[in-house]
Write a structure and sequence with these properties.
Structural class: mainly alpha
Helix content: 55-70%
Number of strands: 2
Order of helices and strands: HHHHEE
Length: 123
Amino acid sequence: MELSVKKIFKLLMIASVLFFLSAQTVHAQSYQNIMGEKFVSGIANVATGVVELPKNIVITSQDKGIPYGMTIGVVTGVAHTIGRTVVGLLDVVTFMIPTGPSSVQPQYVWNDFSRETTYGSRY
């Protein structure tokens, strides 16, 4: 009787190891990572969306001159502030749906601060 219990125990141990090394486990971890990253980037974009205003004023002023930056840069900054905040809010609300990285690039406002913000596909 003891021999069969040992065989069952070994079989269960082998099955456990195979389960932990299976693709489902890897997929579940990546799903959790995607959810977490989407939620954190959403919170960060909602909280820091207002930084788009001075960022766009500086970028536009450096490219086209100060008067242009103080007019068109402000308008562009307000538009990107609204855009980043809305995308962040959508990421927070839908973080359970694994859609990958945020559709706003750069993903965080402080990444590549000298580059203008763009919006595009997540895929």
